[in-house]
Amino acid sequence: MGHFFYAFQEDEESNVLNTKLIWDPTRRTRNPVVVAKELITRLALLCEEYRQMSHPNEVDFEGLRISEAFRKYVFAASELQRVDLGPLSHEERLCFFCNVYNALCLHAHVVHGPPNTVLRRWSFFKSLSYRIAGMDFTLDDIEHGVLRGNQTRPYGLIRQLRPGDPRMQYVLSRRDPRIHFVISAGTQSDPPMRILDGDNIDEELHFATESFLEEACKISPSDREVTLPRIFSWYRDDFAKGTLELLRWILPYLGLSKRRALEVLLDSAKNDSSISIRYETFTWNAEARFSAAIVRRKRRRLEQERASTPQLAEDDKPPEAGPSLSA
Predict the structure, then answer these.
(1) Is the pLDDT at 207 greater than 50, yes or no?
(2) CA distance 149 to 71
(3) What's residue 223's pLDDT?
(4) Parallel/antiparallel/unpaired status of strands 276-279 and 225-228
(5) Quick one: pLDDT band at residue 1, thresholds 50, 70, 90?
(6) Which pTM does this prediction carry?
(7) Distances 190 to 44, 176, 209, 212, 282 between C-alpha atoms, Å
(8) Are 135 and 167 in contact (CB under 8 A)?
(9) Which intervals of the chain form a coiled coil (predicted)?
(10) Residues contacting 14, CB < 8 A, separation 6+
(11) From CA 289, how far away is CA 193, in angstroms rounded?
């Protein structure tokens, strides 16, 4: 009698992190913005639950990875495989892809660990992906391809997506540099990860930029020097070309005292060399930062929204292991 070996989809290793369960194509999927918001909220809550008490800046990714709650999250993420992005507006698409970026980044941290070497960073951003609307998107595809309007990555030579790539249909036509303050690679030098509601994208982007710069921007009037995060060096063309133009860009996002100090410097500046910019060293240490209170508010809001909508038809419900916010 012969021997038969079976491989289960859940047991297969893949760089596509949300294919442990294949979404039934006969089932409907929900609004993509809602799906993405639920996923990142759920994973953020799990990270807070597994944050180490003795080292509050560190998450026990190994403990989270083997948990039943994370297994259910992975099944829930399969809904992204079949979402319909076609009807989304520019703002909805931005909201969706920012939330998915943060969810994928956290998911990758849990499964593969923080990208703490050059080689691991290359694999982390260029090969780990989610299947979205039938196509695979890596972190680089989402950031540089979709959110940045299909630009080259820092120090890159070619655009992220090639002509004819079917993912080009989702590239944002208007580039907004403030996306750099709502997406995060989960490192010490990145902005805290944010969960976008999508009700007022401009307000959310403004607040995120304001919060990050108030903490990260330093001004030394005596040295005529401004210290900025490394993000402004890597993505200089997203913000502004020259030094003075860049400093004028950040001006509205600073608190009163820093804004006044920078205004004095700008008023006396004759050219780009009048003020020097120093970029901080980027620290790759893992530090998946959230405000636990904000995440809890996001969960309550999602639960209230779900309770206020009519009961979902059976075909519209997420799978049994799907995105229950209480799990």
Answers:
(1) yes
(2) 34
(3) 94
(4) parallel
(5) low
(6) 0.88
(7) 16, 18, 12, 9, 8
(8) yes
(9) none
(10) none
(11) 6
Q: Look up tokens 């994208």; give the residue.
A: 201
Collapsing DSSP states into helix, strand and coil, what is residue 321? coil
Query: Does residue 152 contact residue 173 with C-beta atoms inside 8 Å?
Result: no
Phi-psi sector, 198: left (phi>0), alpha (psi -120 to 50), beta: left
In this predicted structure, what is the pLDDT of residue 309? 66
| pLDDT given at position 12 | 56
Q: Are strands 135-138 and 218-220 parallel, antiparallel or unpaired?
A: unpaired
Q: Dihedral through CA 242, CA 245, CA 249, CA 252, nearest 10?
A: 150
Which amino acid does the sequence have at 4? F
Q: Report, as an integer, the average pLDDT of 99-109.
A: 96
Nearest C-alpha neighbor of 124 from the set 98, 144, 104: 104
User: 84 with 36: CB under 8 angstroms?
Assistant: no
The residue among 47, 66, 97, 70 whose CA lies nearest residue 289 is 47
Instruction: Report d(CA 266, CA 296) in Å as an integer.
Output: 41
Q: What distance in Å separates the CA atoms of residue 274 and residue 102, rounded to the nearest whole number?
A: 38
* b/e map 111-148, b = 16+ CB within 10 Å: bbebbeeeeeeeebbeebbbbbbebbbbbbbbbbbbbb
Tokens of residue 214, six digits: 């108030």
* Alpha carbons 209 and 207: distance in angstroms, whole number: 5
Measure the N-to-C terminal CA separation of the chain; round to a whole number of Å: 44
The DSSP letter of residue 24 is: P
CA-CA distance, 228 to 216, in Å (whole number)? 6
